[in-house]
Amino acid sequence: MSAVLDHHGGHAHDDHAHDHHPTGWRRWVFATNHKDIGTMYLLFSFTMLMIGGVLALGIRAELFQPGLQYVNPQLFNQLTTMHGLIMVFGAIMPAFVGFANWMIPLQIGAADMAFARMNNLSFWLMIPAALMLVASFFMPGGAPAAGWTLYAPLTLQMGPSMDAGIFAMHILGASSIMGSINIIVTILNMRAPGMTLMKMPLFCWTWLITAYLLIAVMPVLAGAITMTLTDRHFGTSFFNPAGGGDPVMYQHIFWFFGHPEVYIMILPAFGIVSAIIPAFSRKKLFGYASMVYATASIAILSFIVWAHHMYTTGMPVTGQLFFMYATMLIAVPTGVKIFNWLATMWKGEMTFEVPMLWAVGFLFVFSMGGFTGLILAMAPIDIQLQDTYYVVAHFHYVLVAGSLFALFAGVYYWGPKWTGVMFSETRGKIHFWGSLIFFNITFFPMHFLGLAGMPRRYADYPMQFADFNAIASVGAFGFGLMQVYFFFFIVLPMMQGKGEKAPQRPWNDPDGRGAEGLEWEVPSPAPWHTFETPPKLDATATKVVG
């Protein structure tokens, strides 16, 4: 890295704006620039969001009325399984990595990510994995139909697509681990002089902690699916009771990965929201240090709560109590975050541009998802609600209204810095209100379906559940259309550079208050090379001096 810095040391930006600046297909295939790789991650994740969304609409079309309309129960389970896998590993996680690639070097004043070529590889590994996941529908016997959790014994009975799925998960896991190493090394070693860890933007903190989580748990998932693979082909019996194995052991291993995973998908969202709320409240973030400690606490606690997914597996009551109390404990640091965001807005001079709308929408719906999570943490209640639509409602409130809304907030907030043009405020508001309303029409009725006892992953249901299912299905198609609208009316115009030119600090009021941080010190759009000479920071580490 030092060689690169020495080489470019004293030059002004214009001298070498076109140095090493590949064009055409080479720019993307051999990309080592963190901004290009971030863009590719974001476009990839949006593509996967659309594919996963089409699968979800297949599920909702089938459930629009009782009886079997479009798909048989086997294909229905393939849809639910692949919808989950594609959304979690193909849409949400890569989207946050895209944000990390774009924003972390800009926020800490680094010239690029630490390992630029590894960065390229970690992106391109995802393409074959995604192709394998999608192609599994066309393999003999169709796609895996064991649920996104890939529970044994179902996985031991699936066709060849299960092996393709396992291979795809391995590759995606390798990509995640490489991306995480890159993020950790970049944040710990490449901050501008004067930017101590406790002056870093919260988005960098949340990603640093998330990256450690990923390195800790992706190998656990790899272990679980490798044991599944050897059970399928090499005569082992880890999860096969006939050979002395135990399918519940799979659940323990999977959820030891799976619970930290849900925090991997929400912590970077907290970082994005922590950037946006202070900007539009014209105030500093309330309780910065407590936000850092809360994020770390959530990460640590996430390792001791996994079996709350397994209350119905015949766990001893002592175990149920431990996991119940440990899960309730996670509500404390999460509550600290919600309190700090509200305290940041308190008496602030708030304006509600589109990024702020998404951030406030996030607070509202994520809190609802958090409360239903607390309800499901109670073992006696969860035993009634296990595998009902109440659980589906809960995790979609957290994942769609949590992760996805924060991602949209981030695109609207940093998009002008990425593309150099402003989006249409009116179109952004249509996207926000349409998404918020259709989201609630889709998932709110599922709480009632679950309380009434409708099980998930079934292609058919009794007549008593018909009305709420019809409402949910209409909402789902509306929500899907809003995301297509987002692509054609927000994303495409910005990528094509259509729209009013974005100022360097698009969100600041006439007095200069608003968005703070090093990313607003570079012009819009952010140039190909930034911070080749490390910036000299002021005392707050948010502005460049000299």
Automatic annotation (TrEMBL):
It catalyses: 4 Fe(II)-[cytochrome c] + O2 + 8 H(+)(in) = 4 Fe(III)-[cytochrome c] + 2 H2O + 4 H(+)(out). Keywords: Cell membrane, Copper, Electron transport, Heme, Iron, Membrane, Metal-binding, Oxidoreductase, Respiratory chain, Translocase, Transmembrane, Transmembrane helix, Transport. Its EC number is 7.1.1.9. Pathway: Energy metabolism; oxidative phosphorylation. This is Cytochrome c oxidase subunit 1. It comes from Rubrivivax albus. Cytochrome c oxidase is the component of the respiratory chain that catalyzes the reduction of oxygen to water. Subunits 1-3 form the functional core of the enzyme complex. CO I is the catalytic subunit of the enzyme. Electrons originating in cytochrome c are transferred via the copper A center of subunit 2 and heme A of subunit 1 to the bimetallic center formed by heme A3 and copper B. The gene is ctaD. GO terms for biological process: electron transport coupled proton transport; oxidative phosphorylation; respiratory electron transport chain. Its main location: membrane. The chain crosses the membrane at residues 41-61, 81-102, 123-146, 166-190, 202-225, 262-280, 292-311, 323-343, 355-379, 391-414, 430-450, 470-492. Residues 1-21, 499-546 are annotated as: Disordered.
